[in-house]
Amino acid sequence: MGAQVKGVAHAAFNVSDMEKAIKFYEDVLGFEKAFELQHPTTGEPWIVYLHAGGNQFIELFYGGVNGQEYKDENIGYSHLCLEVEDIQKIADQITQAGWVLDSPVSQGMDKNWQCWTHDPDHNRIELMQMEEDSLQCRFLKEHNL
Questions:
Q1: Which of 38, 63, 87, 110 gives 70 a disulfide partner, CB atoms 3.0 to 4.6 angstroms apart?
Q2: How many CA within 13 A on the CB side of residue 3?
Q3: What contacts 42, CB < 8 A, 6 or more positions away?
């Protein structure tokens, strides 16, 4: 049997107005801001995570693709993140099936293991193995979720 996907870990969006986006997700949909990440090279605000229920989050990127300058064409959908049991197993499964990994298995700033691929229409897909000491798990534990 192949590697198992546990579920959707987060959906990611590039936003033109972070304050307005956070207000919508918190005030209208009832999500809770979980944590923020600073860009690793510039130290500028980069990503805001909002808890969407269960083990799921919404990931909001400031002003465009990966913090790049705002452009209308890169506001909106960024990528889908699937939570997996075993990151190496799913990475091997992808390459053995003849698909390409856009980036190899590595540990992200949130302390989770990840790799990237894309679907046939080039929609970006992040695969993530959650670690006990990750920022997401810390948030869930602190809130008894």
A1: 63
A2: 21
A3: 67
Q: For residues 103 and 126, what is the distance between their CA atoms, to the nearest angstrom?
A: 9
Query: How confident is the model over 95-115, as pLDDT tens digits?
Result: 998 989 999 999 999 999 999
d(CA 83, CA 127): 6
C-beta separation of 52 from 60 below 8 A: no
Single-letter residue type at 54: G
What distance in Å separates the CA atoms of residue 80 and residue 94, rounded to the nearest whole number? 16
Summarize pLDDT for 26-45 with one digit per residue, the tens. Answer: 988 889 999 999 989 989 99
CB contact set of 77 (below 8 Å; sequence gap of 6+): 11, 12, 13, 14, 123
